[in-house]
Specification:
By secondary structure, this protein is mostly beta strands. The protein is built from one helix and four strands, in the order αββββ. The protein binds FE2/S2 (inorganic) cluster.
Length: 95
Amino acid sequence: MHFAACKRTAFANTPSMETLPKIHDKQPVAVELPAGDHWWCACGLSGHQPNCDGSHKGTGFGPKKFTLPEAKKVWLCNCKQTKNPPFCDGSHKAL
Ligand code: FES
């Protein structure tokens, strides 16, 4: 088998920059978060949305770290299309 064909076969089921980010939901999620550092899933593959669980490994994506100076309710993007990550900016309305 030609190398290119082998490569296509080997990575056929691996998410890539072309297929990501994956839309987790077409609406944001409201969460009450404590003060401190948080890591929002940017690829959409995490099983612990909206938080990163490491599922992005090998995809070229990485989580978006954000810091809250105090405990706060925030609306986090679940569609992964926001222009202001990790926060919802209404981009989901165009999906
Ligand atoms: S849920 Fe992604 S922009 Fe609103």
